[in-house]
């Protein structure tokens, strides 16, 4: 498969080299060495054994292609890895290698270990997104624009409150993801530390400390909550990023033109139409998010696993979990420059507010006219005036003031205010302030 063409463009570019086959082998070796160190510290192995294993294996050349080939025979990469590791050790040290562990201990713990820097990177990117969104939100707190429901013009909002929703959504997902625990896995063949009795739990805790992972209550061979929690948290981040990208893409449409993705050499160009400036960053974000959503489905469907070892469910988790992390990181690598350089066009927002000839303000106008005309007549007059304003390209307030049923009924100043979209943005400003306080307050 041409991964560099079809998969990698949507993933975190720096993360790709940190999550390749060699990285998986390195992570599995870290787990094995942490286990040996824990066993030595517990007095089960002679002093110095852990250091000797590290000297022989750290930096050793494992046959990656051989591990890949032999994975077909054993069903996971840990089995050929353990074989190669044992072969690289002198005879007197081989008995201390992989003692008490099982393949799932190795694979699960290695994946959790690989996730540590990935979540750190995602956290940093989300914080940059939040900072950029906060700046946009405050800059455009009073910038009126069309609020749209079912893809149609509805009532005015401010661009600042739209960005506030983006920012809060991203931050909610960031906090959820950062609260997810990455636990070590160590349970042995059937998850009860066979041959190690009560010492097994202490070894598990010691491994967690050495690897920078959390210690679970029990081994979680077929209790896949950690994977479910991580996968769905990554999916939530993808959804929050996709929301921003979708809104931006819709607002960049030629006929709307209220925002534009930041310009960059060669970014967004068409192979056949020189005039186009495509929202490519939004496309990359949405593509990555769609793939994460699919992976989340796989992870959720693998949550219930049989007895003491999954039969295909466990195996089905590996690629979706790792790819989800890489895809989320890739989406955020596009979202950061998108938010930091987003071009906002208030003049286009004002133009689009007037597209209906003022009809977007028919509701507040009807409310203003109701005491004088009655509810039914007020609605009819406001709608009729809006259609006239649209058809004759005249200001809505002017048409209303000249309407025979309105003239002299409502003060001109009140009528003008009722026709001003900027004066009918509801709680937009209060929501922005509330969002700002929440976003900038220390996380609990």
Automatic annotation (TrEMBL):
The keyword Lyase applies. GO terms for molecular function: lyase activity. Gene3D superfamilies: Fumarase/aspartase (C-terminal domain) (1.10.40.30), Fumarase/aspartase (Central domain) (1.20.200.10). Keywords: Lyase. It comes from the Bacteria. Residues 357-436 form the Adenylosuccinate lyase C-terminal domain. CDD domains: pCLME. Belongs to the class-II fumarase/aspartase family. This is Adenylosuccinate lyase family protein.
């Amino acid at each position: 498969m041409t991964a560099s063409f079809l998969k990698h463009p949507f993933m975190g570019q720096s993360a790709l080299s940190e999550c390749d086959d060699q990285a998986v082998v390195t992570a599995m070796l870290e787990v094995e060495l942490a286990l040996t160190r824990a066993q030595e510290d517990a007095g089960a192995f002679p002093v110095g054994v852990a250091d000797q294993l590290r000297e022989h294996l750290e930096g050793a050349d494992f046959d990656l292609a051989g591990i890949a080939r032999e994975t077909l025979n054993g069903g996971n990469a840990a089995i050929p890895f353990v074989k190669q590791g044992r072969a690289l050790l002198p005879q007197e040290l081989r008995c201390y290698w992989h003692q008490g562990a099982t393949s799932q201990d190795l694979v699960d713990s290695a994946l959790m270990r690989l996730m540590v820097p990935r979540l750190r990177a995602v956290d940093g990117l989300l914080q940059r997104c939040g900072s950029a969104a906060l700046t946009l939100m405050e800059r455009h707190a009073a910038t009126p624009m069309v609020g749209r429901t079912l893809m149609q013009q509805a009532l005015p909002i401010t661009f600042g409150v739209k960005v506030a929703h983006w920012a809060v959504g991203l931050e909610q997902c960031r906090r959820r993801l950062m609260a997810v625990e990455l636990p070590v896995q160590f349970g042995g063949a059937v998850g009860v530390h066979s041959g190690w009795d009560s010492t097994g739990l202490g070894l598990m805790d010691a491994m967690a400390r050495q690897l920078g992972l959390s210690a679970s209550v029990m081994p979680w061979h077929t209790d896949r909550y950690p994977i479910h929690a991580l996968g769905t948290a990554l999916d939530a981040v993808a959804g929050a990023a996709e929301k921003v990208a979708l809104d931006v893409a819709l607002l960049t449409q030629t006929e709307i033109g209220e925002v534009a993705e930041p310009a960059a050499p060669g970014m967004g160009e068409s192979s056949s139409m020189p005039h186009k400036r495509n929202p490519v960053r939004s496309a990359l974000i949405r593509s990555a998010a769609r793939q994460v959503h699919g992976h989340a489905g796989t992870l959720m469907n693998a949550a219930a696993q049989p007895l003491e070892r999954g039969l295909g469910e466990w195996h089905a988790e590996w690629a979706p979990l790792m790819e989800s992390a890489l895809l989320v990181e890739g989406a955020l690598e596009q979202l950061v420059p998108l938010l930091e350089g987003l071009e906002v066009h208030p003049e286009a927002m004002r133009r689009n507010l007037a597209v209906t000839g003022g009809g977007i303000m028919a509701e507040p106008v009807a409310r203003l006219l109701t005491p004088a005309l009655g509810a039914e007549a007020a609605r009819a007059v406001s709608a009729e005036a809006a259609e006239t304003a649209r058809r004759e390209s005249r200001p809505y307030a002017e048409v209303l003031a000249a309407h025979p049923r309105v003239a002299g009924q409502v003060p001109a100043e009140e009528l003008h205010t009722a026709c001003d979209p900027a004066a009918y943005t509801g709680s937009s400003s209060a929501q922005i302030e509330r969002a700002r306080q929440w976003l900038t307050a220390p996380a609990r």
